[in-house]
Each structure stands twice: as structure tokens, then as C-alpha cells.
Amino acid sequence: MNEVKASVLMRHEVGLHARPSVKLTKLAKAFESKIDLGLSPNGPWVDAKSIVKVMATKAPKDAIIYFRAEGSDAKAALDALVMLVDGDFQDGP
Amino acid sequence: MDHKTHRVAHRVEGKCAAPGIALGPLVRLVAAKSETRRSPSAAGEQQALADALEASRLDLTVLAGKVEDEDAEAILSFQIALLEDDNLAAPAFALIAEGMVANKAWVAAIDPEIASYDQAEDPYFRVRGSDLRDLRDRVLRRLAGEVDQAVPSGLIVAAEDMPPSVFLATDWRDGGLVLRRGSPSSHVAILARSRGVPMIVGVDIDHLESGVDAVLDGDAGALIVDPDPGLRADYDRRLAEQ
What we know:
The structure holds 2 protein chains of 2 kinds.
Chain A: E1 3-9, H1 18-29, E2 34-38, E3 46-47, H2 51-56, E4 64-70, H3 74-86
Antiparallel strand pairs in A: 1-4, 2-3, 2-4
Helix pairs in contact in A: 1-3
Chain B: E1 10-13, E2 15-18, E3 21-28, H1 42-66, H2 70-83, H3 86-97, H4 102-118, H5 123-126, H6 128-143, E4 156-159, H7 164-168, E5 176-179, H8 187-195, E6 199-201, E7 213-217, E8 222-225, H9 229-241
């Protein structure tokens, strides 16, 4: 199966902290594909569905978030995740 | 003068964390005892931890359904999301399989996580340490078989410290909070200010007894124990005006 990759600049004022991490991992879990997140194009990679792992990257403001995904809905998953980060995590309250 | 009935008012100084006045009986909360678990089997301990995690998740979910402000909702939904992530407790289950008791394994698994946030450069990540501590202690209380103590409203609560989730589970109508630890910039102080709960921190609570009458002056940052009738009347008036 093909691996899909994407990256996006995170402008969120306080980085990937509690509330953005909750939103990101919830969205990732909505997809079947295996999805990883990293702070460089070559990893290290962490499971994007795990809030414990995602928070532990302590990604600051202006970090570029890299995603890679593998599975039936990999492309749709990364499109949605990139849109969430690019839209500053504003998908509701 | 009758020494048996007359008690002298005394004033204990602290730092203002949330303004306002509260009058009422004082109650001192005692920290949970960490009991030693006995003759456990690994399977029994793993089950005990799984049960404590699930009970904690339910506690927080019920609480999240009751709160209405965004700060409180954000704190609770983050803690719930952590509990729903198997990665959080996976190291604890591995330690239990190696023979450790559940409460020690849970602490051993989560303390390095707390330390990593405490050391973060970014203040937004540093405060995550307090969320994890809150969660650690809730699961420990559940492992020890405790349920959340319901504190009736109208009391002045004195404690060493109070995690946000316990603050949010308490009915603060006409009440107030006195802490030894904590700071005016803590999560709990932010919640207290937004809910109008008078609160002071940095108070020596050692000599405070449950049941005494007290006035909490969040504006001045002080607690007055056994106020005399004149002082009490002054505060009654201020309370009516606030």
C-alpha cells in the first residue's frame, strides 16, 4: 500500500499543547489508516492517534508538522489533518 | 472572663488568589493516605489499575457534563483524552507484569511524564505537568478505594493544595478556598476568579481546626478564625454589598 505524506506550518499561538492535541488526535482517530506525526521530514515518528505521544513532541509555534499515513483513507486523513492545523485548529469551540 | 467559651479571634495571612468575602465554618481536607497493597497477583493488580482508570474516566466525564466555561471544559477534556489513550498506562501495566503493585507502577509510569513537562521551556507545556499530577492523584485515590468527598456548600475549605478537577467537583456557593500551596497564577486560581470563589494561597494551615467559624477575606489575602461579633458584623455588611 502506498504511503502518503504531507506537511504543514503550525501557526497556533501556543503550539501543539492541550486543546490542539485533543482536536488533532480525535480527528486522526476518525480514520482507519495508520497515521504518524513528526517534526522533521525523516521522523522520528509518533502515532498521531495518541495524545500522550503527540503532546510529548512539545511542538512549538511555527513548527512544521509532518504527517505520513498508510491505509485505505490515507489521503483523506492527511487532507483533513492539514486543514485542521492550517486553519489554526478552529473547527468550533 | 470565661476561658471555656471565649476564644480570641486570630488572623492568618496569605496571598490573594481570587477576591471576595466568605463567612462560614472551616473544614480542613486531609490528603489521601497511600495504603500499601497486600499480597497481590499481577492479574489482580492489572485489573485494579484498569478499574481505577475507567472509574476516573467516568468521574471526569460526569464532571465535564456539568461545567459550562471553556477553561474548565478544556482542562477536563484533555485529562479524559489522556485516559482514553492506552499509551498512558502501558508502562504501568508492563511494570505490574514484572511484579510491581498497581499504585507504585502507576506512579513509576507517570512521574517521568510529569517531569518532562515540568522541565519544558514553554510555559504552556509546563502547566501540563499539573494536569498530569491531577490525573495521577485521581487514579491513586481510586486505586485506594476512595471516592470523591462531597463537600457541602457554604464552607471555607482549607487544604494543602487542590487539583483543578477536585475544585470543579465542589459546590462553592457561599464558600471559599484556603491553600498552603498553589499560586495566584495556578489553574485553580484562574477557575476561582472566573467563578467568583474567594481564594487565598500561601497560608499556614497547620493550626486550623475543622468546625471553627471563620471569615475568608480574599481582597486582603487573610483568614480570620473565630471573628468577634463586631468584626463579623462588618464582614456581613461587606458580604451583603458584594
